[in-house]
Amino acid sequence: MALTDLCRYPIVQAPMAGGASGAALAAAVSEAGGLGFLAAGYKTADGMYQEIKQVRGLTGRPFGVNLFMPQDPATDPAAIEVYRQQLAGEATWYETPLGEADSGGDDNYEAKLAILREDPVPVVSFTFGCPDRTVLDAFAKIGTYTIVTVTTPEEAAIAHRAGADAVCVQGVEAGGHQGTYRDDPQSGGAGLGLLTLIALVRDAVPLPIVAAGGLMCGAQIAAVLAAGADAAQLGTAFLTCPESGASPVHKQALTDPLFVRTELTRAFSGRPARGLVNRFMREHGPYAPAAYPQVHQLTLGLRKAAAEAGDPQGMALWAGQGHRLARELPAARLVEVLAAELDDAAAQLTATLRNLRNLRSAS
Length: 363
Fold this sequence. Notes:
By secondary structure, the protein is an alpha/beta fold. It has 2 domains: 9-71 and 106-246, TIM Barrel, CATH 3.20.20.70; 73-104 and 247-328, no CATH class. The protein is built from 14 helices and 11 strands. The chain has an 8-stranded parallel sheet. The protein is globular, with a radius of gyration of 20 Å. It starts with 10 loop residues before the first strand and ends with a helix. The relative contact order is 0.15. Keywords: Detoxification, Flavoprotein, FMN, Monooxygenase, Nucleotide-binding, Oxidoreductase. This is Probable nitronate monooxygenase. Belongs to the nitronate monooxygenase family. NMO class I subfamily. One of its GO terms (biological process) is response to toxic substance.
């Protein structure tokens, strides 16, 4: 099975953990000709299975499930305790206790693998690392297509050696968590832009590429396809769809002129993630330790309380760099619009190339 066999259009809906990309959104995108994805991150194994059943009840087309790789729990407890003390004022303000930053970081990984092997889905993708060959070979034997998120050519080489069918190349422009294999506190949030990364990965491995990072319209999809990608993955573009499970406050903030830029921050989860710059990020981002998922667990109640209070200044407003281009359209309609824009961009490129050839011939 080829990547292009999975959907009519080269449009993949990003798996956005935390409730944004559930069954309704994934099914709507797949039904419209894209490739919808469920985000299994932060869910129980049974919770993931129930959502899979919901998608199957809504569409017969291919869809995917994304898993978080288990994380190394080795973190300085003292650094977490210092951050807990810094957040005490937030707990008082939102009248909610801080969460318990336990060391569990496997996200029910093995239980989810067992379900997906026993009752296969068309596609499984992985973030925050690469499974070993035994895992990917097991999926290959049951006909499940596997995609591994990468942020460098080196990570792409690891995925290739492990037997991945494709790589999701994530540029630094992407909203939400960066899918780096190793969270290096010394990196300073540095990362490669998507077009450069596509070229480097294309040169490093012979795998199909799904391009992700700040993509919001059909012309951008055409650009990454021209750069060597086989499909484009969009997350923020689908956040404002009615099928999205993102909170109304989050959806409104994406196009609110109050939020003019995005940054990478550890403030909410302890891992670099791109979101709209708000008060919480400015006040706590510089001091947040590299401690995922402990910081995520610590701030979970605060973020929920802020959302319930309708306060965007205390929420994790994950968003890619192109967030101001978000359109409030039903998911199926957005896929149709993106596909039409892609066709227009391709036609324009063909006309431009024809004109260039004519100019050369005339000279």
